[in-house]
Amino acid sequence: MVELTDDEYVAQVEATIAHWRARHAAWNAAVDSIEVERFHDAVAARFDSNGTLIALDIDPSALTNYTNVELEQIITDVLQRTRESVHEQVMNLFAHYLAPSDPRFDPGALGGAYVQLP
Questions:
Q1: Which residue ranges make up each domain of the chain?
Q2: pTM for this entry
Q3: Fewest beta carbons less than 10 Å away: which of 28, 56, 61, 83?
Q4: DSSP letter string, 14-51
Q5: Tens digit of pLDDT per residue, the chain (118 long)?
Q6: Which of 73, 79, 88, 83 has its CA nearest to residue 44?
Q7: Distance of CA 96 to CAs 46, 86, 90, Å?
């Protein structure tokens, strides 16, 4: 094993920090571009990466095309399926970019060499 000088060690730690900041930025960009299929024509939902509902769109014709019970079930299904889909995609992206112990981790996700702490 090669002994590092203090300056060399600090430089490698700084390179590692820069690498992980870049991985985190790439993960954030990927999360921001998540697309979820529309599960129903009358209702659409959008969630952020934390699972918080940010939009619920209901086609006005749904109020006359469906009974209250049917529309309630449609809304419930769309909310559950959309949130599950976003969660699954966020977790897959996390594994891809930020979880070295996960088999889905891609060391070359940034297009360069993977940098580890010395």
A1: 6-98
A2: 0.84
A3: 61
A4: HHHHHHHHHHHHHHHHHHHT-------SSEEEEE-TTS
A5: 678 899 999 999 999 999 999 999 999 999 999 999 999 999 999 999 999 999 999 999 999 999 999 999 999 999 999 999 999 999 999 999 999 999 999 999 999 888 887 7
A6: 79
A7: 23, 15, 10
